[in-house]
């Protein structure tokens, strides 16, 4: 009984504290009331406090300076698109739509058709996606729902190490460990058991499939990390409700974890896909670097990023450089679009789950 | 609901548990294989010569990647010199002044977009604006490419860390009459320094392992770097060149190079974690 009146004035202090905060750190950057502007008083007041006169010029200068540096980031993005466009314009006007519709890439005859590279890029990313998605989501489920608590951080740390390994080391491992393994064991097995058209002899180990496998390992930490974040955003109550209805652990996961987070999972997978499309070194080292469109995924292929890495430094003619720059522009366009869509999906799912959690 | 139905549900449940566990175990195989191969095959050639000597011509024994190691270190330093002022000042704007304004949101969004651009595209961009204009490859161009990759990474982590600094600290400083800009630089930035250093180190670990943007900006070089205007070797490009070469000795050296690269990247990453944990302790 005594406490109530005490607590009420205490609550009443809150708004005033909030105004203090607002005065010091205005929520709008250009609020009409500056943070500690004393110059609005009469002239005598200003004279009484000589130290603080108006919004000091130093503050304004510093704010504009930092805003300028932030603007450099905008400038950088614009310059990137603009320079790539300039560099690509020669090829764009020379090849037009044939650039995407033909597959003959012949720098000697100045004919540049990128279809085979586009095919290789999409096919390798697709293989990576098919392998990494179940693994990424499965491991994320294992870490959030099943694994005993002390195991969670060490396992997630180990998976994150995969993300820290430079891609040239992946490539090295791919050439000397994965490719021989594929050639001697996995490829013959696939040819014998499934065969054409997907798996056809001869296999060298340097193939679309090897590239896809390497890529899947590389993008797994991305998919796992983001899936895990999405799962963790799901309120406890949802899981407990499913369990209380008598669902088994797996049924709970299916109904209360996987189902509500499907949008975010799609985003996680797309972020992984974006990484797979732009990956250069590991792919160029194991894919065999031959522009071919074939259903046989045990054959060599080529990707957009790999052809840029292989030919850019040695390209002599302007049109060749320009065609490679156009490939770069295409790659940038695709990855930006995929990244944006993924971010929107992850963000909207997570915030929807969060608000659902607040309501309950 | 008969007994059989319960048994089936139970079996499926157990099966899925096992499947997920198996997945987590399976992914450790490539990780362990990679680390072990790099360690075992890399140790074969790891000696002091590897750090101090130039690459030897084919057929000659010995030689190292001294110039590549030096090149990587110098290009990372150039990258820091270019990216840190932009990133940190930009982050101060986003966290302290811009906040939710439209301009700040646009900058944040652009930084996120830039972070998703493949590094090889950054290489083309730097080739266009620098290499093509001055007509030669250089470590400056390589450092610029790495710096551009670092900018969005460092900006976003620094902003997040500045936002974590309690506003009471800012208010205390302002109430003592310290100007806003001094508060930003000497109070807020100072309070967040541990986390910012961690963020920078993680970005450094990331770009030190980059190969693609260096292929046609810094190119490669068989000799010691003699200035920032010369084509420069880097550890990563050297590993790549040696890995795809047909010579056994070079391939061995590629593994050693990969080992040094991994030690460098993990070392920087580990020190980042140490900085963070030490800072947390001292803050408590």
Brief write-up:
The complex is a heterodimer of chains A (about 350) and B (about 280). Chain A is mainly α and about 350 residues long.
Architecture blueprint of SSEs:
The complex is a heterodimer of chains A (360) and B (284).
Chain A: H1 3-24, H2 43-48, H3 57-95, H4 98-101, E1 105-106, E2 111-112, H5 115-146, H6 149-164, H7 167-193, H8 208-233, H9 236-244, H10 249-258, H11 262-278, H12 281-286, H13 304-311, H14 318-359
Antiparallel strand pairs in A: 1-2
Helix pairs in contact in A: 3-14, 5-8, 5-11, 6-8, 7-8, 8-11, 8-14, 9-10, 11-14, 13-14
Chain B: H1 3-43, H2 48-52, H3 66-98, H4 102-116, H5 119-134, H6 139-164, H7 167-175, H8 180-191, H9 193-208, H10 235-243, H11 248-283
Helix pairs in contact in B: 1-11, 3-6, 3-9, 3-10, 4-6, 5-6, 6-9, 7-8, 9-11, 10-11
Can you give a write-up of this model?
The complex is a heterodimer of chains A (about 350) and B (about 280). With about 350 residues, chain A is an all-alpha fold. Helix content of chain A is about 75%, strand content about 0%. Chain A has a two-stranded antiparallel ribbon with strand order 1-2. Chain A is flat. In chain B, α6 packs antiparallel against α9 and α7 runs antiparallel to α8. Chain B has helices spanning about 5-45, 50, 65-100, 100-115, 120-135, 140-165, 165-175, 180-190, 195-210, 235-245, 250-284. The chains are: A mainly alpha (about 350), B mainly alpha (about 280).
